[in-house]
Amino acid sequence: MMKSIRGMNDVLPDDIWKWQKLESVLLKLLNSFNYKEIRTPILEKTDVFVRGVGENTDIVEKEIYLFDDRNGESICLRPEGTAGVIRACIEHGLVAQHTCKLWYLGNMFRYERPQKGRQRQFYQLGVEYLGENSYICEIELLVMQSRLWKELDICSQAKLHINSIGGNETRKSYKEALVRYYHNYFDELDSDSQRRLTTNPLRILDSKNAKTQALFERAPKLIDFMSNIELDRFDNIKKALNELGIEYIVDYSLVRGLDYYNDFVFEWKLTELLGAQNTICAGGRYDFLTKQFDYKEVPAVGFAIGIDRLLLALGESKASFLSNEPKVCDIFFACLGTQAQVKGIAIREEIMEKMPHIKTHLEVGKSTLKNMLKKSNQIMADYAIIIGENELEKNTVQIKALKIDKFSKESLSYVQQEIDFCKVVDYIAKIYLIK
Ligand code: ATP
Ligand code: MG
Questions:
Q1: Closest residue (by CA) to atom 19 of ligand 1?
Q2: pLDDT single digits (tens) 315-367
Q3: What pTM does this model have?
Q4: Beta-strand (E) ranges in 216-288?
Q5: Quick check: CB of 57 below 6 Å from ligand 1?
Q6: Do the beta carbons of residue 120 and residue 5 sit within 8 Å?
Q7: Alpha-carbon Rg of the chain, whole angstroms?
Q8: Going along 18-174, which residue ranges are E strands?
Q9: Which ligand sits closest to the CA of 118?
Q10: Which residue is closest in CA terms to ligand 1's atom 15?
């Protein structure tokens, strides 16, 4: 049997409503905060990520899906969304004068070990606020996220972790201090961290190794290297969060896995609902990414939500958000024979013309009436419109109200009425427009 690529999952028809329901909530929220969608290609030139995300990051070193195209140009499947969005904004002059409030939703690819909450193809919703360096942008994004958790009913479980990684100068002197400190404990570091000591020392803070984590407790802290301006900025964010009633945990080991960040960084975690992969949303400020693309400085802040992980969490939670599958069918057409089916389609067209919100299903096969009604019951339609030979001759239909009998799933209690073709639409309109 042919199978999908490891770590790349199908979303099957019975589950798709969950994705669509979440996407519609996200779309509404982003619209109401006045963000606009941008769609960029899934493939980019490799350089976009080498420069954007950083050469010495896990993403670029180990996770990127990379290949040469037929012309021998190095291209890759996007591992994240921000670098491509910035590439597009520069290319089309979007950030030349104005601020841009953008969002994207799409699949990302990373060659990682597949496990719960970690795939090789996954979906991210990302938001980028470009062209403003006020800390109020950070606040707007955090408020928007917090509103989303409320709407999804996971507000009490979502924990916000924040940190500041300072400006470039601060990080430079901090890195030097870190390297000096960890050199003393070189043999105690895990092998990844030993390597990072020369390539990307800040990432040692991100290590999942317990021994390495313990070493951090006595390591120099970035906050002691920050300038007053940087400290003020971080304090202002904390103050605003306090004022807005958004709880947070200051986490000095939070550094994020992409090189482009400066100053404020954050993650939202759902520790109670998810296992090891419990970060559902992450982001921060990145004022110098455009300079990596040889463009002028454009201050920016953004975040991305892992949609697959968020859905996993919503499934685990007792939240009401995914408890009710939306109704798939209001009116079920049970038409016996092709001639009756054509008639059914004609009636359905008239109904849709007047009541486009009504959901219908028309059986096309050669099923018996009994089986058709069984199916109409399974998909929980309100009404069945039945057209058999008799009805065709008399130019009528049977309209049957369907209801699952509480005591036996087999027996249907119903009211049935015979109605002329020409009166069906009025009859249905009375039911649904009045409702
Ligand atoms: P992690 O520490 O889990 O690897 P990350 O720092 O690599 O996360 P980001 O690049 O910040 O993740 O991506 C933002 C969000 O996208 C993550 O918080 C997570 O929810 C989701 N995400 C990242 N990688 C994957 C993956 N391989 N599979 C599923 N979701 C992912
Ligand atoms: Mg990762």
A1: 306
A2: 988 878 888 888 889 999 999 999 999 999 999 999 999 999 999 999 998 88
A3: 0.90
A4: 249-250, 262-269, 279-285
A5: no
A6: yes
A7: 28
A8: 36-37, 43-45, 65-68, 74-77, 100-109, 121-130, 159-164
A9: 1
A10: 306
